[in-house]
Structures are given as C-alpha cells and as structure tokens.
Amino acid sequence: MSDAQQSETYAVPSPRFEIRATTTPVSDNLRESILAAPGFGQYFTDHMSHVRWTRDAGWHGAELVPYGPLALDPAAPVFHYAQEIFEGLKAYRHADGSVWCFRPERNAARFRRSAARLALPQLDDETFIESLRALVARDSAWVPTPRDAHDECSLYLRPFMIANGRFLGVKPAAEVDYYVIASPAASYFKGAGKPVSIWLSSHYNRAAPGGTGFAKTGGNYASSLVAQQEAIDHGCDQVAFLDAAENKWVEELGGMNLFFVYADGRLVTPPTGGTILEGVTRDSVLTLAADLDLTPEERPISIDEWRDGVRSGEIVEVFACGTAAVITSIGKLVTEDETIETPETNNDVSQRLRRQLLDIQYGHSADTRGWLTQLA
Ligand SMILES: *Cc1c(COP(=O)(O)O)cnc(C)c1O
C-alpha cells in the first residue's frame, strides 16, 4: 500500500461524541443476568457510536445513540456490492474497576488499510479510539467483572463501516456510516483450553493475490462460510485455507492466524503478503516469543511441512490466534484423505503465550510495551 493511500482522508480532528441517551436502558437486573452468562455476540449494550461521512462534507456528526435497528434504503450499496469493513477488539475490566483495550491503534491503522482497499473513506485514528471510549464510558456497566484470574470475560467491540445511500450504479459510495456496537462476551469457544480440530479446505480459497485477504471485510467471511460448513460436516471446528496460486502454502483459518511450534524452539507463522489478515494477536505473539526463548520466523510453510513435521515430531504444537479466542491449540488436521493429530498433551508453548497475553490484557502483569489504552 502506498503512503498516499494511507494518508488520504484525515478529515476530522478528534470530534467529541454528542450523547443522545436511550430512554429505555436494559434494567440493572436483566443486565446482571445477561453478564452472568453472556455467551458470544448475542447481547448488545444500550448505545452505539455513530459518525457520518459524505463526499461533500467529509466526516461529521459524531454521536452516541441508542442501540437499535438501522433504517437503510433498500438500494444502499452495502446490500448489493458488499462495500463494508469491520474491526474486532475487546475491553477488559481490571481489578481496580478501570476498563482498558489492547493495542487499539493497531486496529485503527488496519481499519484505514481495509477502508482504502474497499474504496471507503479512511477514519482518523483519534476518532476511531474516541468512538470506542465514548461507547465504553457510557455503557461501562456492561463490561463484565472477571470472577477470578482465569475468567476471560470482556466487552467485545465491533466497529464497522458501510456504504449507504440510494444508488445501484457500481462506484464507491458517496454516503458512508461508521458505527461501533458492543457485546459482553464469555470465552469464545465452549470449553476454552480444549484443542480444536481443523478441516483443510481443498475446494475453496479464502484470498488471492491482488484480492482482499488483508482487509477485514464481510465479503471474505461470506465466501468462507461454505468451507466452514464443510468443516462442520466433517466433524471439525474450523477450516484452514491454502494459497490460491499453488494450493500448497498454509495461509490461515477463516478468522484466525496460524502458528507452528518446532521442537528446537522455532515459532513459525506464514508471512502477511496481501492474502493474510495482519492479526493484532499474531503480531503480539511474534513480539512475546522472545520472552519465552522462542525464535520467531515469518516464512511460508507448506501443507506437506505441516503433515510431515507433526508426524516426525519436529512440529510439537500448532495453534490459532485472534482477538475473540485469544490462542487455541489445534489438536488435529483433517484432509480429504488423512487425519494428522498433534498429541493433546503438547500445549505448553501455546498455553504460556496465552497466559502472557491474558495477564497483560487483564492487568495482572506490567504493561511494559505500552499496549493498553484506558477507556473508562
Ligand atoms: C480478525 C481476523 C484475524 C485475527 O486478527 P486479530 O487482530 O488478532 O483479532 C485473523 N484472520 C482473519 C481472517 C480475521 O478476520
């Protein structure tokens, strides 16, 4: 991506969000019972952040409004041409009651890169972070309080941007809306800590050179759902994709990056080269690797190396990572003609990395890298 693309649209200097509070907030009792068992992505807080963009006026009208349905014109381009991007990050409550998020400037920068790829206007980083703060400060009662040091509850934040307006012509939208919604979350996978099984997709690819693989856009997910269904039909939890050019190089899961731990201490992950989503968790794991005496390597890894490495014992652990599920061990890889199992007992490295990340996020260990931003 060129610098010109990156720095294109910086219209609004940190606007304050005007508050239009809901007159019908969820009752304290109901909220408490939701927070006792929130699941993932099922319940939403009382408000949402909103900023409008038009080609003529740029970004304007930052506001916090009651959470609720949007009235969109049926001809809005988001419905027809999927001009849409999103982000995902979490707010964590610390023991003193304060609320923090993890490396939000990375999400803000990625949101700009996604916007540039989808021909959407770029939102400046200050407004992005202010939009999180406006919402979390107002709805802070919705940030669950961990019951103990192993409780991984949080408030999941979902910023997104959609092409609005009434126009079926194929060109970048002249009207755009940006929102942030928030959803209390327990651990992402049921029975967190259990290794997951992975189906290797041999019919479908997720991304191709020159495509949108590096952008966080709904279309990538829409086109991977059929492969995810194939995984479920084969008794697997998640699907792994290979590169589209040679069908040989391991890329990532539908929504998580992949890592391979070698017996000699190397920690290998495929390089981001346009077809892989640049995960914040991925980058954090690469950074934390040194603390665990691991040698991080960003290089292509083939499906043959995965299979042969696990068989020979050269690869001792495989794990996936992303904001929602943090770090998850992969117990087996299922392909059209074989099943390759990593011993279940091999999860030492992934569990230690997971603990390190969570300890920083929940404020149990010192934030020596300045990765936390206070929201409330
Ligand atoms: C969001 C996402 C990830 C994980 O990114 P994090 O920033 O670590 O949450 C990985 N792959 C895909 C395809 C994603 O959409």
Radius of gyration: 21 Å
| SS content category | alpha+beta
Report the portion of residues in β strands: 25-35%
Tell me the span between the first and last alpha carbons: 34 Å
Shape: globular
Q: Which CATH top level class of the largest domain fits?
A: Alpha Beta
Question: How would you sum up this structure, described in words?
Answer:
There is one protein chain. The protein is of the alpha+beta class and 376 residues long. It folds into two domains: 3-186, Aminotransferase class 4, branched-chain amino acid transferase, N-terminal domain (D-amino Acid Aminotransferase, Chain A, domain 1); 196-361, D-amino Acid Aminotransferase, Chain A, domain 2 (Alpha-Beta Barrel), CATH 3.20.10. The chain has helices at 3-6, 28-36, 77-81, 104-117, 125-138, 218-233, 280-288, 303-312, 348-361, and strands at residues 18-19, 47-54, 58-66, 84-86, 89-93, 99-102, 154-164, 175-185, 196-200, 238-242, 250-253, 257-262, 266-269, 295-298, 315-322, 326-334, 339-341, 372-374. Strands 1, 2, 3, 4, 5, 6, 7, 8 and 18 form a nine-stranded mixed β-sheet that branches. Strands 9, 10, 11, 12, 13, 14, 15, 16 and 17 form a nine-stranded mixed β-sheet that branches. Helix 6 (218-233) links the parallel strand 9 (196-200) and strand 10. The longest helix has 16 residues, at 218-233. It is globular and about 60 Å long. 41% of the residues are buried. The structure holds pyridoxal-5'-phosphate (PLP). Pyridoxal-5'-phosphate is lined by residues 88, 216, 252, 255-257, 277, 279-282, 322-323.
